[in-house]
Structure formats: structure tokens, C-alpha cells
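User: Hey, my collaborator sent me this sequence without any context and asked if I could get a structure. I don't really work with proteins. Can you help?
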Amino acid sequence: MENIYSEKEERQLCKLSKASKQTVDFLLQYSKSLDVVQYGDLYFERQLN
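Assistant: No problem. I've predicted the 3D structure and written it out in C-alpha cell form, which is a compact way to encode the shape of the chain:
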């Protein structure tokens, strides 16, 4: 029984993936250009160019 659980845990572990420099740069630029505006209880997202 112990072996079954340990085998399942090993398979379900998250593996870190590597991101390319271009992907990281794109995500950083996207997050910098995203603006969230609140009006009352509503939130609006807009892209600043």
C-alpha cells in the first residue's frame, strides 16, 4: 500500500518549465500596459498603448 501512494505522488508532482526570454519580456510588457479601472462595483480592464 505504501508503494502505491509514493508512486502516485511522484507522478503528480509539478515540474518547472523553462520560459524563454521573449516570453518573459512579452508578459512583462503586457502587464505594464494593462490598466484596471474601478467604477462603483465594476472593474474594467483596458490596454494602454
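In plain terms: Residues 18-49 form one domain. You can pass these C-alpha cells on to your collaborator as they are.
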